[in-house]
Amino acid sequence: MTGWFLAFGLAAIAFLALLLIGRIPRSTREISAAALLLGLAGYAWQGNPGLAGAPRLAKDAAGEKFDENLAERRRGLAERFGPAAQWMMLSDGLARQGKTKEAANVLLSGLRAAPDDANLWLGLGNALIAHADGVVSPGADFAYRRALALDPEGPAPRYFYGLALVRNGQLQAARDLWKPLADSAPAGSQVKAELDASIARIDAMLAAGAPPSQ
């Protein structure tokens, strides 16, 4: 019953505010009251006024699913100035708001206009990973493989596909992608140092008996 009391109380307060603060003319008071009653009727029809409350913690999807550091790294490796940049910027903006499905759909729109753009396929793979909470779905796997096929020598597809594979326990597959990339990276570069360290950790895990793939 608490829901009903709150609903009627709010309706009464709203009507009094219209009378005392809004100073609505007498001719419109009946219409205003009818509108409030219509709102109460809608609440009774669509709502659940007798349902007990169940407070929940809001989930900050944007904060959990969008990684600014990874996005910056991707821009450094791939599409910062390329034709895919506008689509990627729009997709990133949606992902920051936690709208991961919409972020992926934007990239699909870009791919309809440029189906052979490796950066868009790479971005789609990353977006689908974010939408699936880190899981390499069949769609994400296809997107990464398409990016690799279109840009086999590019660092970005191999780096991010390998990263997704590592996070899903597919260590050997990730190593196979990263080792040639590390060997070809400029000596002393941050990317080479990071890849060498990651490969060393993978080798240690494989030597300790970790499964090569899942």
Automatic annotation (TrEMBL):
InterPro entries: TPR-like_helical_dom_sf. SUPFAM superfamilies: TPR-like. This is Tetratricopeptide repeat protein. It comes from Sphingobium limneticum.
